[in-house]
Amino acid sequence: MTRRDGAGTPSHADVLTVTMNPAVDHTLTVEEPLREGEVARTDDAQFDAGGKGINVSQYLTALGVEAPATGFLGGPFGRMIAETLDDDGVARDFVEIDGRTRLNTTVLSPDGEYKINHNGPVVGREDVDALVERVRDRGPDRLVVAGSLPRGIDADVVDRLAGAGPWETAVDMGGSVLERLSGAYLVCKPNRSELGEATGRAVETVEDAASAAAELRERGYRYVLASLGADGALLVSESDALYAPALPVDVVDTVGAGDALLSGFLAGLARGEPIEDALRTAVVVAARVVSVSGTSVPAFDDVFENREQVTVTRV
Ligand SMILES: Nc1ncnc2c1ncn2[C@@H]1O[C@H](COP(=O)(O)OP(=O)(O)O)[C@@H](O)[C@H]1O
Ligand SMILES: O=P(O)(O)OC[C@H]1O[C@](O)(COP(=O)(O)O)[C@@H](O)[C@@H]1O
Q1: Is the pLDDT score of 306 beyond 70?
Q2: Nearest of 190, 298, 286 to residue 247 by alpha carbon
Q3: Catalytic residue flag (residue 259)
Q4: Whose CA is nearest to atom 7 of ligand 1?
Q5: Atom 6 of ligand 2, nearest CA residue
Q6: Which of 116, 183, 200, 284 has CA atoms 20 to 30 A from the CA of 28?
Q7: One of 93, 159, 172, 259 is an active-site residue; which one?
Q8: Per-domain residue ranges for the chain?
Q9: Is a pLDDT exceeding 90 seen at residue 148?
Q10: Alpha-carbon distance values, 147 to 53, 63, 118, 173, 176 (Å)
Q11: 3-314 fold
Q12: What is the reported pLDDT for 9?
């Protein structure tokens, strides 16, 4: 029997996020480039509750949109994530699994950003059945399914979650998963390489990204929100392709940048913003998140007022 690892009685949610493969994010900053055979030492280490949907729940909650988190948690890192969500006031309703939730490591060194993501635990079909029930219990208006799939789970589970009720579903998953989905989705948020992987196209320029996003959109997405790193973001709908450059900020690291972009977009939609403004909000939220380390939640107080800083053009 699967166990419920969550706080409180299930209640309706505006947005519910699903993270099937959560992670504790371990961010280490070193002062010298890593050298083979040498021990690097640092006093600067940070642990955050992570995984794409969990980050979206944290960012949305901080942006004033109720967004409980569900998915699978297990082991000591799973307990740490649950405690962090409680401390941050993010409602949670996870299926407790026998496997251990993973630890993902980012090393920030003078020569760059190194990320190592563990593939995560094995999850069983009965855990998936329990997850579908959790989602039905909450009956959200919008569902966000984000992050990699744990071992034992195939892309059809995403279609199953999206099709289990009347909610609109956003997905932020790897290109090979996007390629295999067959349901109807509100939005997907590929980054440049995921967009290339999902379409088999080379994505170098903004124009390349717009063509690839338009092709991907036709496979069942109302919007494709493509993130292009320091080049900004692109929002493609049936009638439009809108491009917004990134805001010039001092970047600490880009962990959580894509999750922040999606959160800002969903927060804009939840507030009834027109699509163009939701794209602006998304870019401001992403700029805030890349300015802090790991997936810690920065101050979002003036995000909505500052969205006019973002210029949007038609591609
Ligand atoms: N170097 C940067 N400077 C400013 N903003 C950035 C930078 N890198 C990323 N961003 C912002 O974060 C968003 C998501 O970044 P990206 O790296 O494309 O996502 P992901 O984390 O999914 O790979 C971008 O669309 C942009 O708005
Ligand atoms: O599930 P994946 O693809 O391994 O990614 C998980 C990692 O991505 C993050 O959600 C950050 O994502 P982004 O940098 O793409 O926004 C981390 O919190 C987590 O460690």
Answers
A1: yes
A2: 286
A3: yes
A4: 230
A5: 51
A6: 284
A7: 259
A8: 3-314
A9: yes
A10: 7, 21, 12, 5, 12
A11: UDP-N-acetylmuramoyl-L-alanine:D-glutamate ligase (3.40.1190)
A12: 53
